[in-house]
Amino acid sequence: MPDGGRTEDRGHDTLLGESGDDAELDRGPFERWVANAIKNPERAYRAMFYTATVFFLVTTLFPFYWLLMVALTPEGQQQDIILTPNGFNPSAFIEVFQVLPFHWYVFNSFVIATASTIVVLIIASLAGYAFGRLEFPGKVPMMMLVLVISFFPPAAFFIPLNDLFNTSFFALEPITGDGTLYNTPGAMVLPLSAIFMPLAIFILTTFYSQIPEGLEDAARVEGTTRLGALFRVIIPLSAPGVATAGVLTFIAVYNEFFFSFLMTDGQPENWAPILEGILGYQGQYEVMYHLMAASSIIGVIPVAILVIVAQEKIVSGLTAGALKE
Questions:
Q1: Whose CA is closest to 121, among 318, 253, 12?
Q2: pTM
Q3: pLDDT (tens digit, 9 = 90+) per residue, 123-147?
């Protein structure tokens, strides 16, 4: 052919172009978004980020916002709340301490959580050092046993612990009066420490096993014992893991209700926890929802401060345990 077939090629290209345009027109909005995301991945990442942020705000922060709205609404007007308080009553945050000694409930939970965290970190550090840096017979089965026990429901331990803590011991009579651990911090610190111990052991074992042996050997050469090397070398180098285990244990114990409710009579002088105080605003004939909401917000403040202060350690601790150099 005089033109070498170029005319037919141009016609064929035109047909292909038209078919491509038709295919583009036939795509739905989702298909077009997927195609654009493939061409521009940053757009897809940005969309996923915004979606995750909105989901976090709705599911996590909105309940606190709703608590604030209920707390600021005067008593008896909570049924008319939409997105703003039905009235304005900031005095609820003061009335919380006037109706009940709520500060004692907060203090009790803080003391119990602090004591449990100290016990957990000390014992879990020793166990984590043994599991992470020593070799001994039965190491793997014992570690598996610790992890299996962590999956037991707390209710399974209540009956034997209740019998134990309500049994009078002669040695405890000078301390508790009746010789039992009921209505004492020990009735909550001991079981709660045991319940949250496996998680701390697992976290600290992971961190302690990653410390180079040369650092510990250098400390041993200088005359330090194994315990000295643990507390002077291993633990300082594993600060993110220790902080993560401590903060998670503190928050879990601070928010615990099952054992705290069953091991005390609900009175603040008998070490009743914060949740007992919140439920104290619920009477037989009326429920003071605004005070329950205000006390819930007040109770969250210590944990929120703790998380804000230790957030860098927590993030690095949760992420560093998954990496191995």
A1: 253
A2: 0.77
A3: 999 999 889 888 888 888 888 888 8
